[in-house]
């Protein structure tokens, strides 16, 4: 297993852009919590804090695919530098407006600027892997597995770091650190031009428009949206369950067990040489995800729940990785970064929706009942996947034929 990842990191330039990507996307697990902690500290309102955080998330959903499209067309370095400078300005304005107790609307405006210019850096990193491994496509799955492990590591460490900074140093320290990570990582990525996919300018008379017109993306986007709702609702349900069991301090450990299961599965998945079609693996992953989310509905003990959610998490990476692989296979090379960014953004929107829905169920029925939310979302994701299975398989075969 280890040799597979050593070979990946031996690819010229890979270690540098992997490190830059890790630093640059640390903020994805920090910004939402950091904004809530900052704004609630200065306004005394969690309602305002949540609304400001939601504004950033919605702006990110609108802006990330657009910046990715520009990167496909003009090159990553030409887009990253101006975008990240504006992004840093947006976060700086947010901190200044909060600390100066300026009118509440200024917080929303600053959050919108920061969100619109927050790039989905994980998609940009995956696009680099696809470019570097274009002659050995079988290794792309291993690269995506590795990036899934990086993502899980970020989602384990990021919330703990931002909470420690915001509560132990200064209310603005967490969001300032998140913005700094984004700035440093994006500038480093822009500097690493040797591993950057070449720009693909739009040819005169060629069809442009959003990658959403791609039939494969039309199937994958709602599935990834529902997967995001699974992740968001699991987090809220887990925290509430730990609190109801009288061990709120162990909430992070409970959520960490879920992420640990996903990370372990990602390492295993990437080390294997798969022969089955991506679409089949994706559908199997969706089915396993549904099965894995049944036990948490039945468990009433916190320590037993930790073991259960670890096994539930084992189905995450074997679903997400072939999902990204399908997008890479189905989307034209000239729109690859945009396509990957779009499904990544769908996950982010789903996390926000799932968190909100699960929170409402917790308030109304309790944490144990709230575990039905991720199960229901997983079922919907599987149904959508099955409904589009024939289309996905057909287009996967077509893309393979055209590549040969």
From TrEMBL:
Q: Does the keyword DNA-binding apply?
A: no
* InterPro entries attached to this UniProt entry: MFS (IPR011701), MFS_dom (IPR020846), MFS_trans_sf (IPR036259)
> SUPFAM superfamilies under this entry?
MFS general substrate transporter
Task: Classify the main location.
Answer: membrane
Q: Where is this gene product found?
A: Cell membrane
Location of the Major facilitator superfamily (MFS) profile domain: 216-404
Q: What is this protein called?
A: MFS transporter
Q: Which UniProt keywords apply?
A: Membrane, Transmembrane, Transmembrane helix
User: Which Gene3D superfamilies does the protein's record reference?
Assistant: MFS general substrate transporter like domains
**How is this protein positioned relative to the membrane?**
Multi-pass membrane protein
The portions of this protein that span the membrane are 46-67, 79-97, 104-125, 169-192, 223-243, 249-270, 282-299, 305-327, 339-357, 369-389
- Does this UniProt record's set of keywords contain Magnesium? no
User: Upper taxonomic classification of the species?
Assistant: Bacteria, Bacillati, Actinomycetota, Actinomycetes, Streptosporangiales
């Amino acid at each position: 297993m280890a040799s597979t990842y050593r070979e990946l990191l031996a690819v010229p330039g890979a270690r540098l852009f992997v490190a830059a990507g890790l630093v640059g996307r640390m903020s994805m697990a920090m910004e939402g919590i950091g904004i809530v902690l900052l704004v609630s500290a200065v306004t005394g309102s969690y309602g305002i804090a949540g609304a400001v955080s939601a504004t950033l998330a919605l702006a990110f959903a609108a802006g990330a695919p657009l910046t990715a499209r520009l990167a496909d067309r003009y090159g990553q370095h030409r887009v990253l530098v101006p975008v990240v400078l504006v992004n840093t300005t947006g976060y700086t304005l947010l901190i200044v407006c909060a600390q100066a107790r300026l009118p509440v609307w200024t917080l929303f405006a600053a959050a919108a600027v920061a969100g619109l210019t927050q790039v989905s850096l994980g998609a940009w990193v995956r696009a680099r892997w696809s470019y570097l491994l274009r002659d050995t496509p079988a290794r792309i799955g291993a690269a995506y597995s590795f990036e899934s492990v990086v993502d899980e590591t970020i989602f384990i460490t990021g919330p703990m770091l931002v909470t420690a900074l915001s509560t132990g140093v200064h209310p603005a320290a967490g969001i300032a650190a998140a913005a700094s990570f984004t700035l440093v990582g994006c500038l480093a990525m822009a500097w690493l031009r040797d591993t950057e996919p070449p720009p693909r300018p739009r040819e005169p008379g060629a069809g442009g428009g959003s990658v959403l017109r791609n039939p494969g993306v039309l199937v994958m986007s709602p599935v990834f949206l529902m997967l995001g709702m699974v992740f968001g609702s699991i987090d809220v349900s887990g925290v509430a369950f730990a609190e109801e069991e009288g061990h709120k301090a162990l909430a992070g450990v409970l959520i960490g067990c879920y992420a640990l299961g996903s990370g372990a599965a990602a390492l295993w998945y990437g080390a294997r040489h798969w022969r089955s079609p991506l679409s089949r693996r994706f559908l199997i992953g969706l089915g396993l995800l549904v099965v894995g989310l049944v036990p948490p509905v039945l468990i009433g003990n916190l320590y037993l729940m930790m073991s259960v959610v670890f096994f539930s998490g084992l189905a995450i990476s074997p679903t997400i990785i072939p999902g990204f692989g399908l997008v890479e296979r189905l989307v034209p090379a000239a729109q690859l970064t945009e396509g990957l960014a779009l499904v990544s953004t769908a996950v982010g929107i789903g996390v926000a929706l799932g968190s909100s829905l699960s929170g409402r169920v917790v308030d109304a029925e309790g944490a144990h009942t709230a575990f039905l939310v991720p199960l229901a979302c997983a079922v919907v994701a599987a149904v959508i996947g099955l409904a589009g299975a024939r289309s996905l398989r057909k287009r996967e075969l077509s893309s393979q034929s055209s590549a040969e």
